Amino acid sequence: TLYPNYVSPYLAHTSYDPSGSTAKSLTTSYTTMYSPYLSTTFIARGASVEVQIQTYNYSISSNRWLYLRLVDDDDAEWSGGDEGDGGGKNTTTRTTERTIHYADETDKQPINFTWVLTGLSDGTEYIVNPQAKTSATTNYLYAGGSYAPNIIKIIQI
């Protein structure tokens, strides 16, 4: 009687796990990761959430950086994106653009990364879309088949 019939620690979560391996080619410009599968909408239940992402970086050339960020529904970096587009412009969240991984050779690397979004308004709907880019070409993200699924989770903290 202490818990409802269904208890989930997540405000929202989604994944992309096709039956066959799918590659997402990266360039030096940000691109949305497996759109629309990882786009996630949530309603804040407090001032802060944790956004977790799982993906798989596959660099087929050395000396490549992987960068990740979150954007709103209008592809604006999340911390500066308009609230009407699901962004966090009036929150205290710092930029979500992050340097994630350096491939010093041909690397196949599972990536698990977390952002903390702060200063949210309770009851407000927000949207997060993960994006990725690389410092040079011949860098990919993979999902499905023999590779891990791509997963995004929003957790109230």
Describe this structure in words.
The protein is mostly beta strands. It has no helices and eleven strands. Strands 1, 2, 5, 8, 10 and 11 form a six-stranded antiparallel sheet that branches.
List keywords for this structure.
six-stranded antiparallel β-sheet, five-stranded antiparallel β-sheet, 157 residues, mainly beta
Brief summary:
With 157 residues, the protein is mainly beta. 0% of the residues lie in helices and 48% in strands. The mean pLDDT is 92.
Helix percentage: under 10%
What general outline do the C-alpha atoms trace?
globular
Strand content: over 45%
What oligomeric arrangement do these chains adopt?
single chain
User: Can you count the helices?
Assistant: 0
User: What's the total number of strands?
Assistant: 11
Mean pLDDT: 92
The secondary structure category is mainly beta
Query: Which stretches of 5+ consecutive residues score pLDDT under 50?
Result: none
CA-based gyration radius: 16 Å
Distance between the termini: 24 Å
The profile of the biggest β sheet is: 6 strands, antiparallel
Secondary-structure topology with pairs:
Blueprint: E1 10-16, E2 22-25, E3 31-32, E4 40-43, E5 49-59, E6 64-71, E7 98-103, E8 107-117, E9 125-134, E10 139-143, E11 150-156
Antiparallel strand pairs: 1-11, 2-10, 3-9, 4-9, 5-8, 5-10, 5-11, 6-7, 6-9
